[in-house]
Design goal:
It is a single chain. It is built from 9 helices and no strands. The protein is mainly alpha-helical and 295 residues long.
Length: 295
């Protein structure tokens, strides 16, 4: 049931946070924006509302699957650790146990997530002016017609390795941030839940999920910047040789502050998105528990 609850929560959260994710990716990968508001204005001026939702359909589907795997892996890994350490799968885990299970969930999701992340970033950074916007020059056809077409083109032009560009940065980002994510959520739920109650209330879930997302994304931002830059590096560019080279070149040209591009936006987006993730996850689990117990 954790897999289904995670899938529903992940899909809903993507729909909520996608426009800000597009703005974040553009700020991280392109130098001509002066800030968040300038990027929003320029995107809307040239591409209208659709510009914020490029690649959203495939992203909702893939994030649903990835979120399902993430929550399912976390729960099953945690139960396995508790069974090995304490003799019972339902024993209360320690903070280290929660962190290890969270890190494992992050590692597993990277395998499934990287190709969809590459397609999402390429779609989000592709310029495709809206028909209503007058242009002095003839508008060329977009290279990618959709997320699936994008994956096909990348595989054809860059090979299988092209689908896994930025995998090393994504692995560093997701293992650490996922461990912090689940640890923060678990710790806040324990702290805010009154003594005598075995489950946190929905307000506690909302707050814990929101703050867990903000902290995890705040710490993940440097690797998120590197990941996005590596994934926009197409076959005819070859700007970056790898994670270290990308980080070094980015810092050399733009200073250390480049690693924190989109930090504020990541944190703003993370709160409502992860509120939705956890409250949906808990609601689905509690509904099914109630339904099965009634039977």
């Amino acid at each position: 049931m954790d897999f289904i609850a995670g899938a529903i929560g992940g899909g809903l959260s993507t729909a909520v946070g996608y426009p800000l994710d597009t703005v974040k990716v553009r700020i991280q990968t392109e130098r001509h924006y002066n800030g968040i508001w300038h990027c929003i204005q320029e995107t809307y001026r040239t591409e209208k509302v659709w510009g914020f939702y490029k690649g959203v359909s495939a992203s909702v589907l893939t994030v649903s699957v990835i979120s399902s795997v993430s929550f399912g892996t976390y729960k099953n890994f945690l139960c396995t650790i508790c069974k090995l350490r304490y003799g019972a799968a339902d024993a209360k885990p320690s903070k280290v146990d929660v962190s290890l299970a969270g890190g494992a969930a992050g590692a597993v999701r990277v395998v499934l997530m990287t190709p969809s992340e590459v397609a999402k970033v390429r779609m989000q950074t592709q310029r495709n002016p809206h028909p209503s916007v007058a242009s002095p020059q003839p508008v060329s056809k977009p290279k990618y017609r959709g997320s699936l077409h994008c994956l096909k083109v990348i595989a054809k032009e860059e090979g299988f390795g092209g689908l896994y560009k930025g995998c090393s940065a994504l692995l560093c980002r997701d293992c650490s941030s996922s461990a912090i994510y689940f640890l923060t959520y678990s710790a806040l739920c324990d702290w805010l839940t009154p003594a005598g109650k075995n489950k946190p209330g929905f307000l506690v879930v909302l707050l814990s999920g929101g703050f867990a997302g903000v902290l995890a994304w705040g710490l993940a931002t440097p690797m998120d910047v590197i990941k996005s830059r590596m994934q926009t590096d197409e076959s005819d560019q070859h700007k970056y040789k790898g994670l270290v080279h990308c980080a070094r070149e980015s810092v050399r040209k733009e200073g250390a502050k480049v690693l924190f591009k989109g930090l504020g936006l990541n944190c703003i987006r993370a709160f409502p998105v992860n509120m939705v993730v956890f409250v949906t996850y808990e609601a689905v689990l509690r509904f099914t528990d109630h339904y099965t117990n009634k039977k």
